[in-house]
Amino acid sequence: MTGPLNINLLQLCKIAVLTLFLCISTQGGAESPGQSSEFQKYLQGAEQGNAEAQNNLGVLYYSGEGVPQDYQEARKWFRKAAEQGNAIAQHNLGLIYEQGQGVPKDSKEAEQWLRKAAEQGYPKSPYYLGMIYKKGQGVLQDYKEAMKWYRKAAELGDVDAKNNLGLMYEQGQGVPVNYQEAIKWYREAAGQGSAVAKNNLGGLYQKGRGVLQDYKEAEQWYRKAADQGDLSAQYNLGMMFRHGHGVGQDNVEAHMWLNLAASKGEENAIKERDLLAKRMSADELTRAQELARNWKPKLATTF
User: Alpha-carbon Rg of the chain, whole angstroms?
Assistant: First the structure.
């Protein structure tokens, strides 16, 4: 579960491997980290007790930039900075514990550090706190607490939090079911380019929840998400073409989208693709497979 972090004048947030957001604090005119001179500069500052340098050194160890990758060293330096009150380091340390990298996975410890960062106003931490409380791993599962943190993150502009708020309103988790609120948050997230939110909007239009049932509108939202590579949307769009919902029935187009979703391991897509193939001619299969081979994802659209 990932999404872009905002860049401002005080900090440049980088996405490291997997889903972990690691943030490097920078000051005006600073060079990009990753070179040995940068490592030595951060090391010198870190050893002198500078919290920003300690956090930055942790990021270099985590990402393996200019130094062999070492999660335990990353954790050590994140902790030193976090204990001095550095919000970015507190966030990074929380995610190290949540991911279990260099330490045993510990959601309770993660929650404590993420909360400290969130209370200082660090913008991404509330989203991860919402995730922890929704999953209920290491803490009591608490949908109301998850909603609180998702809402705070959404109000700070976090696109993933907006989508998750929509999902909780759709499913009635922590709040009564409210499809209008779900649509509102899905639309906001979709407007920021979220393929998941676009797929979720398609689902509401297909089912007629909070809106008049409209297969054509559902197909349009599924297509926007499928074009970005969302496998659930590719499956949904394939099924729309298979059954002719909102579009003309088209086995070739259906097979293409199902094939794309199946290639990413979507089990329902595998089953439906193979069933559909039995009804298609050799020429239709050839054309469908060629379309899938030539398919390229499109950039996210915002509005």
Answer: 22
